[in-house]
Design brief:
single chain; alpha/beta; 2,3-Dihydroxybiphenyl 1,2-Dioxygenase, domain 1; 8 strands
């Protein structure tokens, strides 16, 4: 066995022109806190380390050679990133209040739990899932 204990982090790419917008989205809309922000001069790139509820979870990278996904949403790689929430209705209202467009709340036919999808500023699919 490898001895894996947990997922350490998820890396998300953004274009340089959307870096500040993405930073604001992940901190002010999703509620992540900044652990460390680093400008890597050799790569002309920012790396933003983010935590959820005090736990390091997400790395946001800006790259000058950022390219769009080959297809949406069924291309290889990360399909979407899901966040567990206690109250899906209150979360949907928060998105509405902050002008974040989202799909209607649906019910997972396997679990009976409510969920909804929306996108970050880069078009990365995100999901809120009722705990």
């Amino acid at each position: 066995m490898l001895g894996i204990e947990k997922i350490h982090h998820i890396a998300i790419l953004t274009s340089p022109d959307l870096y500040q917008v993405s930073k604001k989205f992940y901190t002010e809309i999703l509620g992540c806190t900044v652990v460390l922000e680093t400008f890597r001069e050799a790569r002309n790139s920012y790396k933003l380390d983010l935590a959820l509820n005090g736990v390091y979870q997400i790395e946001l990278f800006s790259f000058p050679d950022y390219v769009e996904r080959a297809s949406f949403p069924e291309s290889k790689g990360l399909r979407h990133l899901a966040f567990g929430v206690k109250d899906i209705n209150a979360s949907a209202e928060w998105l509405n209040k902050n002008n974040v467009q989202h799909e209607a709340i649906r019910i997972d036919s396997l679990t009976g739990k409510a969920f909804l999808f929306f996108d970050d500023p880069n078009g990365q699919p995100l999901e809120l899932y009722q705990l």
